[in-house]
Here is the input.
Amino acid sequence: MDGAEVMDGAEVKDKICRMARSLGANLVRSCSVDKWEEIPIQEPEFWPKNIWPWSRNVVVLAIPLFAPMMDTTPSMVYQELYDTSNRVLDDMAYRLANYILSELGYRAIYFPRDCYYSIEVLVDNPNAAFSHVLAGYYAGIGTIGDSHNLLSREFGPRMRLVSILTDAPIPEDEMIEGNLCVHCRRCLKSCPAHCFTEYGDQPYIMDKVECTKHHVEIKNSHHWPCGVCASVCPVGDDLKMYRKEKTVTKEGIVHCQSFGS
Here is the structure.
């Protein structure tokens, strides 16, 4: 489009960020697809450019998971929150990719926020087609904690992510220096599947198969997803308003877990 030819990268990014926020995104950051090669964490088959060679940048969107609802996990209250966030993310990502394509004139697609068929499938191959955690890490939304969750200053690990791949020439955001994880060991101690093992000063070794099997169990009992490791994490400004008051009572947790499933 003619408009895309006269705008510089900063202007294009500003339009993309404004549209993303108008669609409901709380956090919007971007990174180059080259980050996957510069800071390799996954195998090359997962690198965006090896899937869609025309892609140049990734735009990552994040929305919060409300702590008082998440702290009832595993319950239908949390499951509804999780499912709703998925619908919101898919809608935002589709609309933003369509905006970049139709209005700004650049190629764009979105990687669905989960991108796996079912939790049962992950038992045999516990990997989704794309890691929004890594995309958010490379884009500066947060850092990767001991629990392997992405931790942001705003929400800790209590957030959901989705990513848009595009060839729009937008400048990337800086990654966060250091680590937001406070190494409190709460996720290690609280994990109902006992899937974390300490590994020196590195993030915990995570048994993804055991984690997935636990999810299958609670799904079959009509309580899922788990999310305990994210619920107990003390990182995040979203918890400040609850410092002097519990997010939910013990009786409230029992109540939410006893009904609706």
The mean pLDDT is 95. The beta strands are 27-32, 57-64, 108-111, 143-144, 150-151, 159-166, 196-199, 202-206. The chain has one domain: 2-258. The longest strand covers residues 57-64.
